[in-house]
Amino acid sequence: MAPSSSLPIIIPQLIVGLGNPGAQYERTRHNIGFALIDRLALAWQIKLTTERRFQGDYGEGFSPQGQKIRLLKPTTYMNQSGQSLRGVVDWFKLSPESVLVVFDELALPMGKLRLRLRGSAGGHNGMRSIIAHLGTAEVPRLRIGIGSLPNPGTETELSSSDIPPTSISGNRVSFVLGRFTPSESQLLPKVLGLSVDALEMALKQGVEQAMNRYNSQSVA
């Protein structure tokens, strides 16, 4: 068997956070990808500006390790995220493997992360759109746990009339498009901090090394 050092090291060049545009969706579970991009932009001093050609808020700068890095928040709705990402990939002639997509994961408890180099959309229509537009599932991604569905009948802060044409249906809608509870909101900065640490390691040592360290960690 060939040593692991012979395998290509995947270093992200573009980090994309998924979410829905509009003030009514700010600080919702489905927008945790946007929240992480904002956190990275602040930490790395990268200014995000609206770019019509990319259908998103875009910025570029340098990571703490000195690598050139690009950040993107698609301002399409979630299920059209691939349009925005494809625009950036085509403009800069990036490979799908050099992109890292950040999005919410209902199947993970809050405080858990999952980095992967490839895979299916797993029921997430934002990721499904990206796979369709790039023509491959070989797209690294960071899934951030947002917790499991509450008991039926639990009230949230968004009604069905607020729901955009996005990725969710049935009893998942009000939970995923709802805002974090007070206790979850207290935990959120730690979750985002752990995510920043994972991405900084991915930029320094590769996504696979970051997977090995951070997929087993959690924020309590």
Share in β-strands: 15-25%
From the N-terminal CA to the C-terminal CA, the straight-line distance is: 38 Å
- What fraction, in percent, of the residue positions are helical? 25-40%
User: What low-confidence regions span 5 or more consecutive residues with pLDDT below 50?
Assistant: 152-169
Structure description:
The protein has 220 residues and is α/β, with parallel strands linked by helices. It has one domain (11-214): 3-Layer(aba) Sandwich (Rossmann fold). The chain has helices spanning 32-44, 81-92, 125-134, 172-176, 182-205, 207-214; strands spanning 14-17, 49-51, 56-62, 68-74, 99-105, 113-116, 141-145. It has a 7-stranded mixed β-sheet with strand order 2-3-4-1-5-7-6, with helices on both faces. Strand 3 (56-62) and strand 4 form a beta hairpin. Helix 1 crosses helix 5 and helix 2 runs parallel beside helix 3. The chain starts with 13 loop residues before the first strand and ends in a 6-residue tail after the last helix. 40% of the residues are buried. Residues 152-169 have low confidence and may be disordered.
